[in-house]
Design brief:
This protein is of the alpha/beta class and 359 residues long. It folds into two domains: 169 residues, 3-Layer(aba) Sandwich (Rossmann fold), CATH 3.40.50.2000; 175 residues, Glycogen Phosphorylase B (Rossmann fold), CATH 3.40.50. The strands form two sheets. The chain has a six-stranded parallel β-sheet with strand order 8-7-6-9-10-11, sandwiched between helices. Strands 2-1-3-4-5 form a five-stranded parallel β-sheet, sandwiched between helices. Helix 1 links the parallel strand 1 and strand 2. Helix 7 crosses helix 11. The longest helix is centred in the first third of the chain and has 18 residues. It is elongated.
Length: 359
């Protein structure tokens, strides 16, 4: 495929981060489609980043060669690299798109003081496209940018398994198998999930709750977490899963819980797609701002009131006691997950970029 010189600027895993995994998946899918894309990995050392930026500058100034830049970063990365994009626009025929990681681009911009806010909005207006992860965020950013056709939703995505995991799932085990996968820290609602599990135990609900994930470096929450789960034999901490093992691990569960208390920052987490692709209905906190277009109540999940562990326990108990509802929701979850398959999302992205002569 004959294309222009593409450069992706953003974090690329390892180490494992949500944005890093998403960018790794995007690069992999683009290269599968014969697109040669250079990567400026912001997880690398500062010296590597400076060297790569210098190469881009030299190529633009000396060769007057147009670069096509995909800026795929979270809040901090946008503050750092949007001025770089602005400068590149001045120096040469640079074209760019923004894939804002997370769900806070609109709030980040609104909270800037006026002159800086105007600068960032002007830079966004000069981009070819901005691709937020959800419809609501897309609508909010459109109001800020005020440029028709620039802002378009682009769902988070992964490669969907070819085999339907719900066909081999046993929904009628004596106990409900519940899983949490993600960073284990207080703001993720971990304590509330443990409290909900304690309520379920006292009520005689049969379940198993397994936690997977890592802790923040030098975070004293690890000690508290391990102490709390010792009091309930139905709760286990099973360490960190390698990314390749996630599908095989999750398919053995019935329900995924996403108890995050963060009211900003959560766009469309990739771990939700992992759950969907494993046929797991998701029980999520109401703190997740963009959940309503992704979690369809009673179809592929439930929402409970944030920090209300009694409500969370009740939502889990519904599926523990009604296995036929669990079975139906699991199968519907798998059916609806097709929208987040890499082939659909990435092919749609390339079709649109072709229409604006990126390809």
């Amino acid at each position: 495929m004959s294309i222009n010189k593409w450069i992706l600027i953003g974090p690329v895993s390892p180490p494992i981060t949500g944005p890093g995994v998403k960018n790794r998946n995007l690069i992999r899918e683009l290269r599968k489609r014969s697109i040669d894309i250079k990567v400026l990995n912001t997880l690398k050392s500062l010296s590597d980043i400076i060297m790569n930026i210098t190469e881009i500058f030299i190529g633009t100034i000396i060769n007057r060669a147009p670069f096509f830049i995909i800026l795929s970063v979270s809040t901090r990365g946008r503050y750092i690299f949007l001025p770089f994009i602005y400068l590149m626009n001045i120096l040469g025929e640079t074209r760019s798109i923004l894939i804002p990681m997370g769900g806070s681009l609109d709030i980040d911009i609104e909270q800037l003081f006026s002159p800086l806010r105007k600068f960032y909005i002007k830079t966004l207006q000069e981009m070819d496209r901005i691709y937020p992860e959800t419809e609501d965020l897309t609508s909010n950013i459109k109001k800020l940018v005020e440029k028709d056709g620039t802002v378009k939703k682009l769902y988070n995505f992964k490669r969907r398994p070819s085999k339907n995991p719900t066909e081999a799932k046993n929904y009628y085990l004596p106990y409900l198998k519940i899983v949490y996968l993600g960073r284990i820290k207080r703001s993720k609602g971990i304590i509330e999930l443990i409290e909900a599990a304690n309520i379920l135990e006292r009520k005689g609900v049969n379940f198993r709750l397994d936690f997977y994930g890592g802790f923040l470096f030098k975070d004293n929450f690890q000690k508290l977490f391990l102490s709390e789960i010792q009091n309930n034999d139905n709760i286990k901490y099973l360490g960190i899963i390698e990314p390749k093992a996630i599908p095989e691990t999750l398919k053995n569960y019935h329900v995924f819980v996403f108890p995050s208390k963060r009211t900003r920052g959560e766009g469309f987490p990739g771990v939700i797609i992992d759950a969907f692709f494993s046929g797991l209905p998701v029980i999520t906190s109401s703190a997740w701002k963009y959940r309503k277009e992704i979690i369809l109540e009673g179809l592929n999940g439930f929402t409970y009131t944030s920090e209300d562990y009694k409500d969370l326990a009740n939502k889990i108990a519904v599926l523990a006691k009604n296995r036929e509802l669990l079975r139906k929701m699991s199968k519907k979850t798998w059916e609806l997950s097709i929208d987040y398959d890499a082939d659909i999302v990435v092919d749609g992205l390339l079709k649109e970029l072709k229409s604006i002569k990126w390809i």
